[in-house]
User: What shape does this take?
Amino acid sequence: MSGPVSPGAAPAGVEARIARLLTLGTRVGIGLLAVGSLLLVAGGASPLGRSWPRLDPAALLADLVALRAAAWLWAGLIVMLSTPLLRVATATLGFARAGERRMAALGAAVLLVVALAVAAGMAAG
Amino acid sequence: MIVGLLLAAGGFGAGVFGSLLGLGGGILIVPLLTVGFGLGFREAVGVSLVCVIVTSSAAAGVFLERHVANLRLGMLLEVFTASGALLGGLVAFLLPERVLAALFAILLAYTAISMARRGRATASPAAPLRGAGSSVPADDPPDDPPAPTLADVVAGPGYRPRHLVAGAGGSLGAGILSALLGVGGGIVKVPLMHLVMGVPLKVATATSNLMIGVTAAASAVVYLLRGGIDPYVAGPTAVGVFVGAMAGSRLAARIEVRVLRLLFVGVIALTAAQMTLRALG
Assistant: This one.
């Protein structure tokens, strides 16, 4: 059974938590992309008409330390793409803790679809 | 070096325009990258999806802080937009780029017409909240009130969304559109929620914005893992879009948006013509 329903309101604190998460995720993601873009521009190479390196998670940390533009850009992209998904996970957890099973199930369904997207992308990539 | 700065400047322009006109920016970025920088259509879509996530995440936090977005309704419809985005992300790699360009030209034409006619449309009244004005007398409450329906669960202050099935179907379509064309899909979701589901326009706009990030992320993941996102183009463009969107939100009160909208309709109609030429080869 679902918990008490107050029209429009999410469980206490959930919206504020999500708002903070979105703000932080956006700032960190944009910060990483900005550093990567500066490194790219400073390197003097044109971003167009060249092949780009595939994402290599194993080498990401070392490449970040080595100030490679692509690594900072990949890190920024990963943070940006993860931010909305963490938002769904946070909301799902918040609804589950409040005993709102129906809303928690909806959030879990969204995460399942994203997991399928990851699997489909990996299978096709 | 100059191209990187030009990409950031182009993103900045798209961010300012998008913010002033209430668009996610994708509708501007794909033409900017394809027509302006000569990128392939699919490559431009991958970059655009990243930019759409940036603008959505930045704005959605503010909408939630101000309690304008309906998180519950957003999560319900996200199941369908994300499913559509997954489907669209897979189909996008099967369709010829000319077909995608033709679809984008149609979307641009639709957007131009919608913006030119904006303000004339009126929403159907929202369904009353359960219990408000119902036939059950207030002094004779039922002993065992019925369990809340899904519409009750996603209701907001003063409104209760109607036509949930139509909303779900439309959201699926919006997700497919987003993944195929690199747009947020607000051009579909806002009228769907407002005119069909009876959600107040302000809430529909904020909730659509909230949903865009997840929708775009579901398809962007497919693009990313298939090597369809160029980080060298996405980085400068996304940073430009973010700064532009912030500048646009500050300029909004000082600029005559009606004039800007007319200018935008002209630009977008011209872009639709260019996209049509591209589609025709």
Q: What stands out?
A: Residues 14-124 of chain A form one domain.
